[in-house]
Amino acid sequence: MFQRESWVIGYLRDNAPEINYGTFLMPKGPRGWGTIGNMLGICVPKSSAHKKEAWA
């Protein structure tokens, strides 16, 4: 199981049609559904003039 954005469904359909997969809603908690974020791909270029501010 993995959690990804909705565009992945179309990507798998177009680029990996042999993969057998399913989709489902994430479980609802006591206060309803929430937002889940991830930190993949966040970086500050070495050449950035504002490295310190970027991580603030």
Please describe what this structure looks like:
With about 55 residues, the protein is mainly α. It has a domain at about 1-25. It is about 25% helix and about 0% strand. The chain contains two helices and no strands. The chain has helices at about 5-15, 50-55. It is flat. The relative contact order is 0.10.
Strand content bin? under 5%
* Helix coverage percent: 10-25%
Instruction: Please report the number of helical segments.
Output: 2
Shape: flat
Secondary-structure element pattern, one letter each: HH
Q: Main β-sheet, in a few words?
A: none
List low-confidence stretches.
none
Keywords:
56 residues; mainly alpha; flat
Summarize the structure.
By secondary structure, the protein is mainly α. The protein has a domain at about 1-25. The protein has helices at about 5-15, 50-55.
Provide the fold topology.
Layout: H1 7-15, H2 51-54
